[in-house]
Write a structure and sequence with these properties.
This protein is α+β, with helices and mostly antiparallel strands and about 230 residues long. The chain has five helices and three strands, in the order βββααααα. Helix content is about 50%, strand content about 15%.
């Protein structure tokens, strides 16, 4: 099953503006994603989920205005509320297989892939201007279920639409990889749901057998008392 833990938070300043980013870790079996997002991005994610969800969603932590939203006591309370929200949310299979949830993880991988290759001088970073021409081949993003790098997300996009000289542009390659990963994640979640259903059925069978056993024991005890 999916697990999520909000591990901390930080205040980020950009000129005269400030915002808080929350650090959290997502795990699916042995695989791990480390992300950070600001409250507004997580609220937007909640709204996307609410548009298509058929199940009742847990309440999202309310918005707060004013300077008090940067006080450590308030931010810590919001961190705990966000963790409780996501723990409850990931109990819903339709959320685990939704495009919004998978896109959140895919975005983390793409941003981390761009960051790593930018350091190596192989691609532009998320804040660099795209070059006017490129002869580089598309860089495939690692399968999120076969690797577990430390991934970072933000509110700004880092994908470059500059076409390559090859038969497909980098953005087309990333879109193809994204679709493949989403299909794989949906398949894994479907397998998980089937396993849960099978387990629940076996537990029901076990309860029925136990009930029959208890009734049988009661009959035998009554017979023993009668014979005594």
């Amino acid at each position: 099953p999916w697990t999520i833990t909000f591990t901390g938070f930080r205040t980020v300043s950009s000129g005269s503006t400030h915002h808080t980013e929350f650090d959290f870790t997502v795990m699916y079996g042995p695989k791990k994603w480390k992300l950070h997002q600001r409250y507004s991005s997580l609220l937007l994610f909640h709204k996307k989920i609410a548009q298509t969800a058929t199940s009742q969603l847990p309440p999202f932590p309310p918005k707060k205005w004013g300077k008090g939203r940067f006080q450590e006591k308030f931010v810590e309370r919001r961190r705990r509320d966000l963790e409780r929200y996501f723990v409850a949310l990931l109990e819903l299979t339709e959320v685990c297989t939704s495009t919004a949830w998978l896109s959140l993880l895919n975005e983390a991988y793409e941003k981390e892939d761009n960051r790593v290759h930018s350091v190596r001088g192989e691609s532009s970073s998320s804040v660099a201007e795209p070059s006017s021409s490129s002869n580089a081949s598309p860089v495939a993003v690692a399968d999120p279920l076969s690797a577990s790098p430390t991934a970072t997300t933000s509110d700004t996009a880092s994908d470059s639409d500059t076409p390559s000289a090859g038969p497909a542009s980098p953005s087309q390659g990333r879109d193809r990889d994204r679709r493949e990963r989403e299909a794989l994640l949906r398949s894994r979640c479907s397998e998980l749901e089937n396993a849960r259903d099978e387990l629940a059925e076996l537990q029901q069978i076990q309860k029925r057998r136990m009930s029959v056993g208890v009734e049988r024991i009661a009959v035998l005890q009554q017979r023993v008392r009668t014979l005594e």
